[in-house]
């Protein structure tokens, strides 16, 4: 690093120093690196760096009142230097309350200056530099410091560690931990006994393990002929209580051909995209399918025959869906209950998108004045088209009562009878 043998305060720096000792603020602002030769020029008469090359922010300031000196530091790199230069000059600038920013202190290395290569080459420099300047008895000394470039020195780190240790030692020396009690936290005596009645000692893991083993041994010694029958009775009671609402409910399935067992018998396609049926070989049952894509603002409707209901009565609607591979941000897939007289939607169970077989169930009360309903299978694309893929529905059930009960297919018996009669009318049977 350049050694600035010729250095000192400028005349303007001395004037500012005098003002600072009289109470004015002494504020360092920046360093300027330069390549100029001092020659016969006098440092006190300088007002600026002779040939400035790079401006560097102040990164640290330490004031030693006893030595009446200040250490002002900087960090620089050649990363932004485009043209190499010999670093001969260093200037420290400060704010004069009357004149503004001035050259406060100046140093020149002469022929001992270091070469600073351009940053676009193979050599990248990163260095720190400290200027030790006279401040006398001035007390209001500050600097404009770039905190993003602040580095701690070894001396600072060592002092910080020493201060931290002293502080910690002092605090630890004053700590007093009381004995623990039922009302106060503190230190306790460990105890291995499983017979102790002390409320001021703590059980060890060994004591806990011993007590656990004693409890296990006592349980094994108990009369199993008493415990097991009691457990069985309790389990039977819980099971009976759980299924009682289902057993007592009058809940046959009111929907004919609820799982496509008779293809699309009893159902009508009323939308712009049609539904069909298919057989699920791995599960052994059929399902209603709308595999085709549905264009934006288009619908696929599959309506059942009318079903008689009682207004004000609770019903349960359930269905099994498969939408694996199908997603939509604007569309819906659902099984709904419609007012047969005006087509108003009363209740619906909605499928989750991109999900394998999953069951949905909802309970509802039939509105006043409604005596017949239809079940409708709906795919609505919304404002964005819905892709080709799984849009499957099966095991649909409409039953009386608000209880969510297992799927059954009582109305399929009637559908089977009607379906066979229809086939006979065609001469197939």
Description of the molecule:
With 429 residues, this protein is of the alpha+beta class. Among the domains are: 6-156, no CATH class; 267-413, Jelly Rolls, CATH 2.60.120. 21% of the residues lie in helices and 34% in strands. It contains 5 helices and 23 strands. The strands form 5 sheets. Strands 1, 2, 3, 4, 6, 7, 9 and 10 form an 8-stranded mixed beta sheet that branches. Strand 19 (332-339) and strand 20 form a beta hairpin. It starts with 5 loop residues before the first strand and ends with a helix. The model has no long low-confidence stretch (mean pLDDT 86).
Could you report the average pLDDT, rounded to the nearest whole number?
86
Structural class, by secondary structure, is alpha+beta
Largest sheet: 8 strands, mixed
- Span between N and C termini? 109 Å
Low-confidence stretches: none
Rg: 46 Å
Helix content: 10-25%
Described by the principal axes of the CA atoms, the overall outline is elongated
Content of β-strand: 25-35%
Instruction: Figure out the total of helices.
Output: 5
Topology of helices and strands:
Elements: E1 6-9, H1 11-21, E2 26-34, E3 52-64, E4 69-77, E5 85-87, E6 89-96, E7 100-108, E8 114-116, E9 126-134, E10 141-143, H2 154-173, E11 189-191, E12 201-203, H3 205-221, H4 224-248, E13 267-269, E14 276-280, E15 285-289, E16 299-304, E17 307-308, E18 314-322, E19 332-339, E20 345-350, E21 358-365, E22 372-380, E23 392-400, H5 411-425
């Amino acid at each position: 690093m350049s050694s600035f043998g010729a250095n000192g305060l400028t005349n303007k720096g001395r004037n500012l120093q005098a003002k600072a000792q009289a109470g004015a603020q002494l504020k360092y602002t920046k360093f300027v690196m330069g390549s100029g030769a001092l020659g016969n020029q006098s440092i006190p008469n300088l007002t600026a760096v002779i040939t400035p090359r790079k401006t560097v922010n102040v990164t640290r300031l330490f004031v030693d009142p006893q030595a009446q000196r200040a250490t002002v530091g900087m960090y620089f790199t050649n990363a932004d230097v485009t043209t190499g230069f010999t670093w001969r000059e260093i200037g420290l600038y400060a704010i004069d309350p009357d004149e503004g920013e001035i050259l406060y202190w100046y140093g020149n290395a002469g022929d001992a200056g270091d070469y600073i290569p351009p940053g676009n080459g193979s050599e990248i420099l990163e260095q720190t530099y400290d200027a030790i300047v006279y401040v006398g008895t001035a007390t209001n000394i500050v600097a404009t410091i770039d905190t993003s470039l602040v580095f701690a020195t070894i001396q600072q780190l060592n002092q910080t560690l020493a201060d931290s240790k002293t502080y910690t030692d002092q605090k630890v020396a004053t700590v007093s931990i009381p004995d623990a009690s039922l009302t106060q936290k503190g230190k306790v005596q460990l105890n291995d006994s499983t017979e102790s009645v002390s409320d001021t000692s703590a059980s060890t893991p060994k004591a806990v393990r011993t007590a656990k083993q004693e409890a296990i041994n006592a349980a094994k010694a108990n009369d199993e002929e008493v415990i097991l029958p009691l457990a069985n009775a309790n389990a039977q009671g819980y099971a009976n209580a759980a299924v009682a609402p289902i057993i007592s409910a009058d809940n046959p399935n009111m929907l004919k051909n609820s799982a496509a067992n008779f293809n699309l018998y009893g159902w009508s396609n009323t939308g712009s995209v049609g539904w069909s049926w298919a057989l699920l070989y791995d599960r052994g049952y059929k399902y209603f399918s709308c595999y085709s894509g549905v264009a934006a603002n288009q619908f696929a409707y599959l309506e059942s025959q009318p079903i008689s209901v009682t207004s004000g009565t609770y019903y349960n609607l359930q269905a099994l869906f498969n939408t694996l591979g199908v997603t939509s941000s604007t569309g819906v897939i659902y099984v709904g209950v419609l007012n047969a007289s005006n087509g108003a939607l009363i209740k619906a169970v909605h499928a989750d998108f991109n999900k394998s077989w999953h069951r949905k169930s909802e309970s509802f009360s039939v509105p006043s004045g409604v005596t017949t309903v239809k079940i409708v299978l709906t795919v609505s694309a919304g404002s964005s088209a819905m892709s080709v893929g799984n849009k499957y529905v099966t095991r649909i059930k409409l039953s009386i009562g608000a209880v969510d009960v297992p799927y059954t297919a009582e109305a399929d018996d009637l559908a089977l009878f009607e379906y066979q009669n229809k086939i006979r009318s065609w001469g197939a049977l």
